[in-house]
Amino acid sequence: MIETIKNLANILFFLVASIITVLTFLHARKTIFDPIKTEIFKLQLQAFEEILSFFQDKSEYDFLETFDFHQISELNALQMADDYVATFFEEEFALIKETRKELYKNFVGGIVSIKYAKKNLISVDKKNPILEKNIQKQKVKLNETKIQKWRQYEKGSVGFTKDYEDNLNKVRKITSSPILPEELKAHLNEFVKTVQKNLEILGVSITQCSKDMPKHFPTYSSLKEFNTAWIHNHYNHNRKPFELECNKILNFINDYLKINNISPRH
After folding, report:
1. C-alpha 232 chain-centroid distance
2. Mean pLDDT value of segment 169-197
3. DSSP designation for 9
């Protein structure tokens, strides 16, 4: 009987000791890890603030400006027009070639489509982009061989500017932070892909618009009426919207911080 009581006492002792040990560990873990979690949350708030300052209250137009798509579109469309001049009006192109070098210094890099790389290294608005009152009613027949060559034209290389590069790198840097939730990183990566995809779409739009150049500009003098607005319109109709991914980023932060559940104190 006494032996049984001793055994029960020992079991009870070790059971109580185990419980105390577990509780002590849990308390210690809470004491150690809670400050770490607090510091991580503070760092997350700083990262969120940086994200909000970049994305909040920006419209489609604002993102086009941020990534310099207006100038990029203008310069790449002009490059296509220069390629057209070089194809059909070689002598005139020689006159403008040097002046273009300074203009195209705004490009700091470019992308090349896979199709274009394999080939070389490897719905258009049919309305005339020239105002009717400025159209010269001339019956001009361009060289058929050159027309056939021009039909193969592709704006496979699309240049971008420093503003585009700097702001894209800014988003990439934010995305690389190890303290951001994975879902938020995924949304940021999708936004980066949208920016890059829109550069590719610009090249496709310019290629499609280039097919109408012989019809709209049959003479070198008619190119005085060349305006990139019709190419911009075609591009804007086909590009991917920025706001879709932007809203996903902002909504995630809103839900993560439960901003809508914070009520003012009375």
Report:
1. 17
2. 95
3. H
